[in-house]
Amino acid sequence: MPTKYYTSGEFAKKAHVSIRTIRYYDQKNLLKPAVRTSGGARRYTEQDLVKLQQILLLKYLGFSLEEIREMTIGSGDTQLLINSLQIQKRLAEERLEEMKNVINAIDSTRDALEDNQQVDWSKMLDLIHLTSMNQSLSVQYKNATNISARIRLHSDYSTNKEGWFPWLYSNLHLKPGMKILELGAGNGALWSQNIDKVPEDVTIILSDISEGILADAKKEISYHPQFQYAVFDAEKIPFADETFDIVIADHMLFYCDDISEVLSEVSQVLKSEGRFICSTYSKKHMHEITDLVQGFNSNIVLSSTNLYERFGLDNGQKILEPYFRNISCHKYYDSIEISEAIPIISYILSCHGNQNSILLDNYQDFKQYVDDKVQDGFHISKDVGYFIGRKK
User: Most buried residue among 107, 189, 211, 218 by CB atoms closer than 10 A?
Assistant: First the structure.
């Protein structure tokens, strides 16, 4: 069947856009005509229409024409498109939460005025900020998307090719008959990346405070009879004393409201010679990311608290000592070398600070800033490891 060609006018009408738009996309090297007549007139095909629909959709989703060109021309990089879409989704979620805050503030202010009350404008603004932070955290922990964004940066661009999760797993020294509990298991990467090494006759319980995150972990691991899943707060572990041979807390203790209570609970559910393995990092870990965002805007904070101050490599042993004995620290030596902006931006947007509210209306400028900073290579240092201790 011969190829059907459309004139610019026919093509524009079919796509519900103006002829000027078609010409503009040609000038920007986004959508070239399939052929040109001897007189220079443009001619388009059904395949061009599919590409135009892709461009229009991405533009509607908030991407710049430069970004769309990267996604649609030549590269065929599906992962780039997936990562970019995830960023746009996250920004849209933040904007939605921001609009909810505005509506709540309007309602609260109106109610106060209708009741002839004096409006405390400063207090109202503080309430908006507090609500915004709480809603941002609710988006963070709805599922494992943000955890996955952080893991991808490490798994795809780290210089130590062994990988954090295979290395950590190799230090668990699992044996037949063991019972293992992981607190704050996230998306289950410790196990999904080592699934072929897990003995058949062990019992592993993955826990998290978020049901959505655990659902993602279960999906990642798929069905293996060794695994069970439980939603609970690590400050109230719902198991009998001396149940587990190993309890694991991989980069999660510093998120707990009462770390001492968690450690007390862990000590109780460990068997007499049971081991507690908990990982963390120091102030030096990935400090280049903080330097990068603050170079763009000094008001950006990637975490509302310095997590390494709550439980880090420098103070972890002292925090663990009241509950465990024979404590030792083991470092994982690694760094990141990268020359792509999108994985770094995904990581930044997945953090727990105020960055998304600041970057929401400045995303294109921020992306260009990161592009410029990393195009010739960008080094990110790591200072990370785990503590191991036995029950006292």
Answer: 189
Which range is least confidently modeled, 224-238, 267-281, 300-314?
Answer: 300-314
Could you report the per-residue pLDDT of 110-132, keeping only the tens digit for each? 777 777 777 666 655 555 554 44
The H or E element that residue 27 is part of is helix 19-27
Structure tokens, 301: 């904070």
CA distance 272 to 218: 30
Confirm if 182 and 198 have CB atoms less than 8 A apart.
no
Beta bridge partners of 204: 180, 227
Name, in order, each residue with C-beta under 8 angstroms of 335's C-beta and a sequence gap of 6 or more.
158, 159, 160, 379, 380, 381, 382
> Between these two residues, 40 and 151, which has the higher pLDDT value?
40
How far is it, in rounded angstroms, from Cα 333 to Cα 164?
A: 10
Q: What angle do the packed helices 78-114 and 121-140 form, to 10 degrees?
A: 150
Tokens linked to 169 = 């797993």
Average pLDDT over residues 295-315: 91
Residue 234 CB coordination number (10 Å): 25
- In terms of pTM, does the model score above 0.85? no
Residues 6+ apart with CB under 8 A from 382: 158, 281, 285, 286, 332, 333, 334, 335, 336
Reported confidence tier of residue 140, pLDDT bands at 50, 70, 90: very low
Tokens matching residue 54? 């892709």
Q: What's the rounded Cα separation, in Å, for the pair 156 and 202? A: 30
